[in-house]
Amino acid sequence: MTKNSKKKNKQKDTYTGRLDMSRSGIGYVVVEGLERDIIVRPGSLANALNGDEVRVEVMTDAVRGRRMEGEITQILRRKQSEFSGRIEVHPHFAFLIPDNEKMGVDIYVPLHLLNGATDGDHAMARIVEWNGKTKNPVGEVISVLTEQSVNEIAMQGLLVENGFPLTFPDDVLEEAARYPDGVSKDELNHRKDMRKVLTMTIDPVDAKDFDDALSIRTLRGDWYEVGVHIADVSHYIQPDSALDKEAYRRATSVYLPDRVSPMLPERLSNELCSLRPNEDKYTFSAIFTINKQGKVKETWLGRTVIHSRRRFTYEDVQEILEGADGDHAKELHLLNGMARSLRAARFEKGAINFSSQEVRFKLDEDARPIGITVKESKESHQLIEEFMLLANRAVAEYVGEQRHKDKAVPFPYRVHDVPDPDKLRAFTSFAAHFGVRFNLGDPAAIAASFNAMLATVQGKPEQHVLEQLGIRTMAKAVYTTENIGHYGLGFAHYCHFTSPIRRYPDVLVHRILQECLDGNIHPMKHLEQQCRHCSDQERRAMDTERAANKYKQVEYMQQFLGDEFEAVISGVAAFGFWAETVEHKCEGMISVTDLQDIDIFELRETEYALVGRTTDVRFAMGDHVTIRVAATNLSKRQIDFVLANAPQPVHRRQRKDTGRPKAGATGGRATQNRKTQKKQKTNKKRK
Questions:
Q1: pLDDT per residue as tens digits for the range 567-604
Q2: Among the four given CATH numbers 3.40.50.11190, 2.40.50.140, 1.10.357.120, 3.90.1200.10, the one describing domain 3-77
Q3: Distance (Å, rounded) from C-alpha 678 to C-alpha 336?
Q4: CATH of domain 82-147
Q5: pLDDT score of 517 more than 60
Q6: Which letter does DSSP use for residue 253 in this model?
Q7: Contact 639, 550 (CB under 8 A)
Q8: Who is most buried in 56, 80, 482, 672, counting CB within 10 A?
Q9: Three-state SS sequence of 329-381
Q10: Which CATH architecture best describes the domain 561-686?
């Protein structure tokens, strides 16, 4: 091969990645495995938009530290097709000027597709055509947002910016509407009939889609039959149907403070598939023969029909578990005892006992936040959690044992890798300051060390910071056909089987499981690609949910401008630190520019702290500070804090002690005050 032909081949190297647009109009294709992104100039974007999955052909190789430059040759998947913005109407046409600064072109809207929008309106538009020959895509207005619905503009904007459509296509809605209510006699012949067994659902008070139920009945001896029954969504969604394609496109439901953006149309999610009380429903079940100690003797997997007798909220069940009278109290206490045993056994075998706080907003009729509560994980939640984990693991273990042509059956496992070594070393070094020691010998020893730490710091001031930093060392759980186990749960086999109304991977699991049960396996050709898509959509949903929660935090804190609150430092960066109010769990930023009167601060990453160059003043994660709410910005979803009682700077050369300063912004304040008083007395004597 000649040099010229080598060079020619290099120029035609292609990669697949995600396009990240800058405000200047230059794109960067982020490719997994490449150290640096590939630059794409405006003339080489080929109508690709921010967030699109694209194929890029490299035209200029990296030279002397410069990035590769390329040209987009194919758009594999659009991140979004709906955009919010301002309508601009001209005599013969109109445009939607997008709110998103990374959307580099306006959307051309023919007058007959304005659908009632007028000049200056804030609206949502969907791209309906972009043939590549025109500069602007053609769109239609799908909704007009008034000035009275600022929250609506914000919430819908967050959804569409992250690629979640606001409405379902007509063909999807028509397909969902065609399915009849109830169960058919013919279908009953192919299912285990569980309608006479005591069955109940336990869900949040505001839930509308009940996708799991528990049944229990007494067997001979000390054994019980406990059924975990899951809505049989795959009965309704046929592969490659309009419903299936739309569910896959979304891949997940998105839960915002004031709404749910569902994966499935309401006809399915809230009606046909929802395991509502006093209705016969199709389910896919994992039924266990189990004793009071949580020991499982037998497992049956298959399709069933159930009839839920009672719809419980978590609060209802918690009251019963704490001693109140209520329906089926005996059965609930029995199930809770089993769940306790399952939970204890799980932690004994290596699961990590991390806990996290979930914030909920109390909203008025206009969706404005009027209160904030922290959701606690109580025994009623843990009861459901343990039986869902048991079912998920049982399904994954069963499919993991199956073979097709002497090979493992391709399957969407839910996996969780071991902690990142670099993050782990930094964390253990920090934890050592609190007397916490880690055994890093192997993954099992690391998990045991985490659990020992969590038990040791329970109730101590450092508990919150060590829990939060410990979680950050963990890898992200993903979907993949390569089963490496679930480190955090301590399971060798694990999948998502129990929430098919809101997660597409669960639908895939149901289909593959049924093929295995039937002995008629047809391996899915592009399953790994589907797993990556579902993992991507899950991350986008989480980003959307976090942004929506932050919006509500900012909206709530607007009423407290100038007020002071106790807070805990929740993060540090070179440009400042974040603090979370103890009372509201609302996070704001304190900039280093507001700390200049104290000192010039530098970031010490291994200590998770900002430390003054010439003083002993430090601000470290977990420290308690008093803050004042200085400003709020809804459009940017930002809260600015300032220190209410800033420590007085004392230079190190003025100090006699050289030991490690105490953690906390005010750790050295008493010493600083004594030295200030001594200095004032000396000056007075001189005068």
A1: 999 999 999 999 999 999 999 999 999 999 899 999 99
A2: 2.40.50.140
A3: 63
A4: 2.40.50.700
A5: yes
A6: -
A7: no
A8: 56
A9: HHHHHHHHHHHHHHHHHHHHCCCCCCCCCEEEEEECCCCCEEEEEEECCCHHH
A10: Beta Barrel (2.40)
